[in-house]
Amino acid sequence: MVYDGRFAGDFFTNLSPSEVLAAVIERAADQHVSDLFFLAEESGIRVAFRRMGQIETVAALPLDLGRTVVTLLKAEAGIDLGDRRRPHEGRLIQTIGDRTIDLRINIIPTLHGEDLAARLLDRKFGLRTLDQIGLTRIELNKMQAMLNNSSGLILVTGPTGTGKTTTLYGCLQYLNDGTRKINTLEDPVEYSVTGLRQSQTNAKLGLDFPELLRNVLRQAPDVIMVGEIRDEETASTAVRAANSGTVVLSTLHSPIAASAVMSMAALGVNRFFLSNCLLGVVAQRLVRTLCTKCRVAYDISESPETFADIQPFLEPGFGTYIFGPGSCEACWQQGYSGRTAILELMVFNRQLRQLVAKGCSSEELQALAMQQGMLEFRRSAMVKVAMGVTSTEEILRELPTDQLGLDL
């Protein structure tokens, strides 16, 4: 089945609902879409993709056809077809060629009908190793050294949808060498990985993170990954486990690396116990990466001050050009071909731990970490720009202006 970047207006005319559904999922998989939407509107069903963080409408289905496609998808995901008044969740495994696509379905009733959102997980492309998430060579060495500890707490922070789970799985793949017992507590389990003991929360049974965490500690794990620290009990139990000979990895919502300490304190964690076990914090955002086949280079050799403060962090040969998006078939004429993380990696040493125990502010912690070599968001972003990984336009679009040192 061959068709161009957008579905033509009459593309679905001669297709059955099952063929329409297969075509949409296939196109979403081909474009490495993270989310697929069927949105109920007064005159029809709008089909949209979220690709590299941006939503694009790709088709408008007639009302009858669209509702039939949504019903078919609900049936294949095991969702009750008779109840259209309440939200529902389901799961569907779709095989496309040699790829297995895992669709996590969520349905919610709206004014004009049911909206369906499907999170797509491509098992062939979803997992990334530590050297693929966006760390510089120096940061990668620091991250690996941090993970090699026999106990302690590592937090990955950032807003929803910034790749925190991908980073955690990268850490787990590094640790998963057969010499450690690794347990994960997830909501839901994102990827099935050989060698990991993976458990999933179940709200209907009252099986939440605190309950799972309390019990998995009796399984004598070397490493525990907790999907998210979102309550006081999970936070305190995670810190207690990290102080008792276990490596604990988890995610947390905080804007920068330094503020993770304040977020944990707000959840009632004792700062002294936290300072004893905290190994490091990774704060991150996602930006689109320039297509290497069509990116455009602009010579800035006459402005050497542009990358002066990040020159020590650049690989040889970079820093005299800045890059922007082009347009070609390989990137669907968008100029971007993937996403990478802009990171702050705060590795805790004795001085930083002393500040945490004393009740320091996030500003004090951030300042000391930068003195000791941490790249904050601004410089981390500029390294990616200088290396031709992304563009200045993308940095300004995705990173908060206060983290870029801008006063707008």
Highlighted features:
6-stranded antiparallel β-sheet, 2 domains, Rossmann fold, alpha/beta, Beta-Lactamase, 28% strand, globular, 12 helices, 408 residues
What is the CA-based Rg, rounded?
A: 23 Å
The biggest sheet amounts to: 7 strands, mixed
Question: What distance separates the N and C termini?
Answer: 48 Å
SSE pattern = HEEEHEEEHEHEEHEHEHHEEEEHHHH
Number of domains: 2
Can you tell me the overall shape?
Answer: globular
Low-confidence stretches: 1-6
Regarding CATH, which class of the largest domain? Alpha Beta
Structure commentary:
By secondary structure, this protein is α/β, with parallel strands linked by helices. It is 30% helix and 28% strand. The chain has two domains: 17-122, Beta-Lactamase (2-Layer Sandwich), CATH 3.30.450; 130-403, Rossmann fold. The strands form three sheets. It has a seven-stranded mixed sheet, sandwiched between helices. A six-stranded antiparallel sheet has the order 3-2-1-6-5-4. A two-stranded antiparallel sheet has the order 13-14. The radius of gyration is 23 Å and the shape is globular.
